[in-house]
Each structure stands twice: as C-alpha cells, then as structure tokens.
Amino acid sequence: MRPVNRGPSPQTADFASYRLALAELVSRLGHYCSYCERYIPAGLAVEHIRPKDAEMYPHLIGRWDNYLLGCVNCNGTKTNKDVLLDQIFLVDRDNTFHAFTYTPDGKVKPSEGLSDEHRQLALDTLALTGLEKPINEVYDENGELVYLDRVSQRRLTWLLAKSSKDDLETSPTEGMRRQIIRTAITRGFFSIWMTVFEDDPVMRQMFINAFPGTAPECFDATTGPISPRPANGLDHAGKI
Ligand SMILES: [Zn+2]
Fold first, then answer.
1. Which of 7, 61, 191, 192 is the most exposed place for a label (fewest CB within 10 A)?
2. CA of 33 to the centre of ligand 1 (A)
3. Is 200 contained in some domain?
4. What total number of domains does the chain contain?
C-alpha cells in the first residue's frame, strides 16, 4: 500500500464541504485510491479516514488531515466503520509499503517477519476495505451496480509489470524505462510495480518519483523500506 504525504492543508480553516478538498487531494496524491492503489481517472471520492457519520467525528468532517482518496469499492466496504488510528496502518502515517506483500496471484497480505501485533494491524487494515478478498459487485451512490474485482485487477497488473520487466531486459534503454513509467502511472498499483522490479533500484526510484505524493522518507537510498516511518506530526504515525 503506497505510503503518501498529502502535505499541509491548502487553507487555514477546515473545509466547509469535504468535496471542496477533492481537487487538491488529487493534485497532491494522483488519481489513485489510497487503499487499493488503482488508477481511477474519474470517480474518486474524498475518503474520511475517521468516518463522516455526523454522530461519530463531527469535528473531523472538514479536516484536511482526515482525508484520503477512495474508490467506490474501498469506500463501499469501509462505509462508516469506526477507525481508531492506533489500530490500523494508514498510508499517511505508517510505512504501509513495508507492512504488506503483493503476490502474483493478486493477493495482498501482511509481510513476512512482522510481529504478532503488527500482523494483526495489517490484517485489520485489509479487512477494513475488503482488500483481502474479491468483491465482484457494489452499488455506487446512484444505485448503479458496478462490476469491479480488485484481485483480478492486481493479477492483471502483475502480468503487465512482468512483461514490462522482460521488455527492459531485452531492450535496456532510457526510453524503455520511461515507457514503463508511463504504463505504470496510468495503471496504478504502485506496490506491484515496486515488487516486480524489486531488484532494479533505478526503476523503483523512478516509480517513487512518478507517482504523485509518494512519501520519499519511507525509502532509503537503494529504495528499501525505512521502518518505522519517521514522525510527521500526525497522531499515531510511525507504527511501522
Ligand atoms: Zn480502492
């Protein structure tokens, strides 16, 4: 799960309507769902980390630091479930790239070697948005059925990344590297590209630079993950 920096709020006061934050969030973080990492060219929504249910966190409805970007699948699963910041990993606070492992079969799971506590946090994070299982259909806000399966999309992206890697081995040119970046950023799934190219720090640094808002402090000079993530002023940051 791509760790990000949304940066400081573009305004001093809270947002009168959370929808007003959408353009700035997309500008800072790119057209990607903060949870499933898919590229969503249109239809991303402002996602409230702690739900916008008026009875739960009314003081956070307009708060910049409570916003990420979410697709209809992830939002539709997360709904207004309560979120305690110390009990899940968050892309703006933790090194979520280090916490999860992506595999060729489209699965995403807690990384090997995590402590029992961290493993549970990782599992709870996946369950929050249903990333650990396929979802074939959801209803959007207009009641329309949308057929989307995030697992199959991850499998497909893995194959695409693998083919791209083969192409680079055949034709190791700067132009090929740039073409792979163009493919990756219009496909999404940062973590899959980073995993398939795990032995190519040049490409990995290019992915880190090319996906807007990726937190550079989560990666060392050879693009290995830095954990725990350095403190960034947000509550309960740096759990991993
Ligand atoms: Zn999503």
1. 7
2. 5
3. no
4. 1
CA of 121 to the centre of ligand 1 (A): 19
Q: Is the pLDDT assigned to residue 221 strictly greater than 90?
A: yes
* 70 CA to centre of ligand 1 in angstroms: 5
| Residue 147 alpha carbon to ligand 1 centre in Å | 13
pLDDT by residue (tens digit) across 28-48? 999 999 999 999 999 999 999
* Residue appearing with tokens 């990000």: 4
pLDDT of residue 138: 63
Please tell me the distance between residue 74's alpha carbon and the centre of ligand 1 in angstroms: 4
Cα–Cα distance, 218 to 3 (Å, whole number): 7
Closest among 102, 99, 130 to 189, alpha carbons compared: 102
Residue pair 26/34 in contact by the 8 Å Cβ criterion = no
| 90 belongs to a structural domain | yes
Structural domain includes residue 122: yes
Q: What's the gap in Å between 131 CA and the centre of ligand 1?
A: 8
